[in-house]
């Protein structure tokens, strides 16, 4: 394995408020890497720096051996934001076709990718409906389909299963594992501990700092605890 995402000495401030403080992070190729932590801990800010939506105040971010931000790199990254960035007056299919067209997919390939992505998130029957008529959960599922549309090498998913029913959540995680096994790198943020257990490696984030990192089993062994939630609490206590 070799590093796909490398974050080195990254700080980020908005005005006088420091949101990230000397963050180091390395995600190997073919890993599902989880960022876990409460709302406001800095996870989303870190994710935006990794995909190039913002620049660090200090430090460097590299993805696929390329310094971020880089316009060409966006062709190789699939990103699902916490807020759904969809066109409400278009249908689900038109949204997928529009975002797919940004990646210059040929017509036959684009149609195949739309079928695959819609099927994965169980939206095939709803593709002809306008997004303004979608429920919140359906919009999340469509956002995930958009992130997958160009068959990216790196997937960055910010709280991807919020508002999605448990059965579909399981099938999405099964697909993430399948994608991982094909060599893709997946970075996912979550505050759901049973999803954190499914990651190969975790970083626990609080108040803009990484408290501890390792596989779920390594973290539990290190702290002598069998429950990841308690590991997070204990790591936070150790920091204080």
Explain briefly what this protein structure is:
By secondary structure, this protein is an alpha/beta fold.
Keywords, separated by commas or semicolons:
240 residues, alpha/beta, 6-stranded mixed β-sheet, 4-stranded antiparallel β-sheet, 8 helices, globular
State the strand order across the main sheet.
Answer: 6-7-8-3-9-10
Tally of contiguous helical segments:
8
Task: Give the helix level as a range of percent.
Answer: 25-40%
Please tell me the overall pLDDT. 92
Instruction: Extract low-pLDDT stretches.
Output: none
The first-to-last residue Cα distance is: 34 Å
What kind of sheet is the major sheet?
Answer: 6 strands, mixed
Overview of the structural elements:
This protein is 36% helix and 27% strand. The chain has a six-stranded mixed β-sheet, sandwiched between helices. A four-stranded antiparallel β-sheet has the order 2-1-4-5, with helices on one face. Helix 2 crosses helix 3, helix 3 (107-120) crosses helix 4 (136-148) and helix 7 (216-223) packs across helix 8. The chain is built from eight helices and ten strands. It has helices spanning 43-51, 92-101, 107-120, 136-148, 166-181, 193-196, 216-223, 228-239; strands at residues 3-14, 17-28, 32-36, 58-63, 66-67, 77-80, 154-158, 185-190, 201-206, 209-214. The relative contact order is 0.18. The model has no long low-confidence stretch (mean pLDDT 92). The protein is globular, with a radius of gyration of 18 Å. The chain is α/β, with parallel strands linked by helices and 240 residues long. It starts with a strand and ends with a helix.
